[in-house]
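protien #1 (seq + structre)
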Amino acid sequence: MKKIFALLTAFVAFSCAKTDGQKTEFSKVALSETLLASDGSQVAFQDILKKHEGKTIVIEVWASWCGDCVKAMPKIKELQANNPDVAYVFLSMDKTADKWKAGIEKHALIGDQYMVNDQMGGVFAKAIDLDWIPRYIIVDKTGKIVLYRAIETDFDKINETLASLK
């Protein structure tokens, strides 16, 4: 009987565990991965986050070839206008630096710009569980991830999250 109770308790505890994929911190793999900066240098992701220590950060993972990303550009601009104290970091999944830089210029993206070296199927993308772009991640002022997986249809959730952090 004790074994059945223990199994039942373990099952209930496991069933109630958070399974929405929400993470509160980046993996060591993601943090140590280097990204191409717009000046041509390579920067570790952890150093990008450190640059904005003490600020709320909105990270957008996008690509110039992504139709949904382009469609969401007005929403990210509205988000920036309504949340000027937030740091914005754009991580491109473009295949070439030329296309990435042309996309930044074409869409007049304001914020820190980096390109992931190995794109959608690479180490960094896997380390952040990337399965769709655009993807938005929000990091609070303490460095904790408060929204790990949001896409272009989740701007209400993104706005609510930012409002709760003010």
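ok now protien #2
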Amino acid sequence: MGTVRIRQFEFICQSQGLDPYVENFRAFYQLIRNMAFYSLGLRAAKKILINPPKSFHD
């Protein structure tokens, strides 16, 4: 499964004309250890707005 995530990241970067760097990969994925196994999991999304506005006035 890890190689699939790496290849997907590589294809997305290539489709956008970007070079696939490890730092960029680590922004989206993290190494997870479950007992004796390691895998790549998605990083938790960071919220930009803690309390988003309900509406915009003026």
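Residues 36 and 53 are 45 Å apart (CA to CA).
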